[in-house]
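The protein record quoted in full:
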Amino acid sequence: TIKAIAYDGENESEIVTVIFKKMEVLTPSEAVALCTTTESVDKYIIRGYVTKIATAYDAGFNNITFWLADEADGGEILQAYRAVPVTENDKTVAEGAYVEIVGKLVLFGSSKTPEVPAGGTYTIIPAPVVNHTIAVSANPAEAGTVTGAGEYEEGATATLTATANEGYEFVNWTENEEEVSTDAEYTFEVLADRALVANFEKAAPATET
């Protein structure tokens, strides 16, 4: 809440009060839940991935209708939104784009589908960075060392390396007790959190000839 007056050295104006309300950032699924439990929400921000273009940019109505989801690959939540582009560049929206909508959240008729009515605006913004944790361990712990654990951005390439200590040899990599690789250097695309185990066994003693 901001209150202000004008003062010229002798006289002062009436107090003017302006109230600003912070808008909550919602995911598409949160917006659906909110609009189906209340009649309307005066102002809100929703961010999601475009999964389908329902109606391309219409110059006559200066808006576009697209479907949004919580996740880049569609996820489980698909809801249609109609809004006005903020800039000329926002008029062309492709599937997979990450969009921010600002407007009044209401139900569209009786379909239980939230929609931004005339006056709502959208902007194409950079998608958030998603990180995943890659955890590694050696089994047994004294048999060797493993490297490559850490936080990785989704879609990045991770390389894990297992090095056996003296008297041991590498066997395989397992995840949830299932073998995923027999290469001591295991490379893969990071798409989710993972916990991998490098398994070692005692090396067979050298035989004399």
Notes: The chain has a mean pLDDT of 87. Residues 39 and 106 are 7 Å apart (CA to CA). The first strand starts at residue 2 and ends at 4.
